[in-house]
């Protein structure tokens, strides 16, 4: 049932090109995003004055990426909240709020309760769910399913990737309805979306490189992930993956925030994973890499092939991924980080599919 892999997590990481294809390709017809199952009309979308993204854990990290993506595409404010916080923060929700609820299982109790609260306050709920017929799916006004297939490993991989894919589709769909995107940009992004599965396959083929980096660093006591904008959002997920299955302490920081405190933790030999894939902020992030290097950090850089020569000048090792549209970059960046977490946990002899203290579906508050 593990398809020849040692762990479900490895199998699920490797399934991502297919999961992405299954989630995205049927929803693109003649170069347009078609979401037949969605009842959001252009009139309704124009009325929406705020999006509220509600989720937990990795699904929340998808929400963090979605904030950057959807604000850019829709020019509407997007607030992202942990479901466990939303419930108790007296949230500002009206009937002009669109709540985007993200959950693999569709049963996470905090997310479900937050969703009910959002509905009670008048929001319309659009959910992104993997498990068909789950409670969150049933109680939403609209649901878009990720066609990731069953996810067994506690640490999510393919569900995260397909949630992200749906965020792009929702963004493109709504941007077109709202006319907040130029036709040429829309076409360029759709074209690139269709290339993502092949690029994912290329990344997965090179997994031995990541295994080698893991062998260098699997004994590090503490690891930092830094990046800006969507690179930062992906860093949050990379850090969570690592700590939940390898039990290594790690932190994700917005690169520009380091000097406001955390840089005091950087000392000779600290590993910093620097995400510098997002083209518009490459130089900014690299200036932070120089700062941590000068304090003795080991830096594992992650960027796209076109920046390969540049990044190699500064970092100790570089992971290079294919170039794509900057908006879609998280889909490619997250995979080496999943693999890194996996191999580190493997080398540390951890129980990868069932990390201690964690459950796949959290149905208690
Ligand atoms: C991390 C992980 C968890 C879940 C979180 C939400 O790898 O799997 O953080 O993302 O418990 O679960 P769902 O998406 O089922 O609501």
From TrEMBL:
It catalyses: D-fructose 6-phosphate + L-glutamine = D-glucosamine 6-phosphate + L-glutamate. Its main location: cytoplasm. Residues 40-180, 213-355 form the SIS domain. It is found in: Cytoplasm. It comes from Lawsonibacter hominis. The active site is at 360 (for fru-6p isomerization activity). The keyword Transferase applies. Its EC number is 2.6.1.16. Keywords: Aminotransferase, Cytoplasm, Glutamine amidotransferase, Repeat, Transferase. The keyword Transferase applies. This is Glutamine--fructose-6-phosphate aminotransferase [isomerizing]. It comes from the Bacteria. One of its GO terms (biological process) is carbohydrate metabolic process. Catalyzes the first step in hexosamine metabolism, converting fructose-6P into glucosamine-6P using glutamine as a nitrogen source. One of its GO terms (molecular function) is carbohydrate derivative binding. Homodimer. GO terms for cellular component: cytosol.
